[in-house]
From TrEMBL:
This is VOC family protein. SUPFAM superfamilies: Glyoxalase/Bleomycin resistance protein/Dihydroxybiphenyl dioxygenase. InterPro entries: Glyas_Bleomycin-R_OHBP_Dase, Glyas_Fos-R_dOase_dom, PhnB-like. Pfam families: Glyoxalase. Residues 10-125 form the Glyoxalase/fosfomycin resistance/dioxygenase domain. It comes from Microbacterium schleiferi.
Length: 131
């Protein structure tokens, strides 16, 4: 895996979130529990490390007690031109399910399409494509 890969720390929902992201983006998912890594600083079934690899790559874990979990302000993940227009449109809709459309996916004055969504886990995504 190369390039920038976000590593998110969830408040006990890493398994659910990564499974959701795999359902949106496809790819291979690896999940390792605290027990798998011999960690005793949290619930045995909590995710110590998870990795989604594919067109969209993400790492995630469950934050240990007392550690901060993901909170996004002033940042979003950009998927501009990452896939076909059809796939990006579908991703936008699926990410919005249970989340919030911040700015509708629409054609802009310069001719391209983009929009922003905050998913059910609070992650903001900028999705777009050229027309």
């Amino acid at each position: 895996m190369s390039g920038l890969v976000p590593y998110l720390h969830f408040d006990g929902t890493a398994r659910e979130a990564l499974t959701f992201y795999q359902s949106v983006f496809g790819g291979e998912l690896e999940l390792h529990t605290y027990v798998d890594f011999s960690r005793t600083d949290g619930p045995k079934d909590a995710i110590a490390h998870g990795a989604l690899s594919g067109l969209v790559a993400l790492f995630a874990a469950d934050a240990a007690p007392g550690e901060a979990s993901v909170s996004m302000a002033g940042v979003e993940f950009s998927l501009l031109g990452t896939a076909s227009a059809e796939d990006l449109t579908a991703w936008f809709g699926t990410l919005a399910d249970g989340g919030e459309i911040v700015d509708a996916l629409q054609q802009r004055p310069w001719g391209d399409y983009d929009g922003m969504v905050r998913d059910r886990y609070g992650i903001r995504w900028l999705i777009g494509f050229q027309s």
